[in-house]
Amino acid sequence: MAGVAQGYTVEKLLGRPLNEVEKKHAPTRLWAIGDLSLASTGARVAVVGARKASSEGARRAARLAGELSAQGVVIVSGLAEGIDTSAHKSAIASGGRTIAVLGTPLNETYPKQNAELQQQIMFGHLAVSQFDLGEPVLRQNFPRRNRLMALLVDATVIVEASDSSGSLSQGWEAIRLGRPLFLLRSVAEKTALKWPGEMLAYGASILSATEELLEVLLIGATSDQAVFAF
To answer: Is pLDDT of 224 > 70?
Structure first.
């Protein structure tokens, strides 16, 4: 029920049983508030990346989230600074839907400046957390959040990230789960970074245009909106 935080299993939230690979890192209980149908119907794509995003990275995240939203895809991200914030805000501004997977309990916000955005998502979209109310916010919460996000979505896109970015934990979890993982061409071609080549060797794909992701999701573009290259 929207507006009321309730406890769920991952299987109940997704509306399907988990296989043995999915169960390995799945939390035993989730807390959720908002429109629960967003977690079990339609396509869901995580758009994630650096907290200290470049202006170009933030712009790319917003454009990708907006184009996916126009095709009915639910945008999932972690409510962090930078890429996550751009993705959530663009989905909402585009009239789309978004899910925030939190690294804090539902009654906490990190970063604090996203408190208003978190409230907007809770009462107009969906917020999910594996952390009980009153549980301390620890550094290790955020990689756990990213692993959960990889489980809840049909595909993950890393927009921009350094070799030490927490988003990489989500990329590796997506690969472990056998879920599509995309790296924007703009980050995949950065020769100073080690991680893109490693993930590509394990099955990640380079994303040059939104329509490539829509094809994997078996969604055809249904609007006249331009689909730009990345």
So the answer is: no
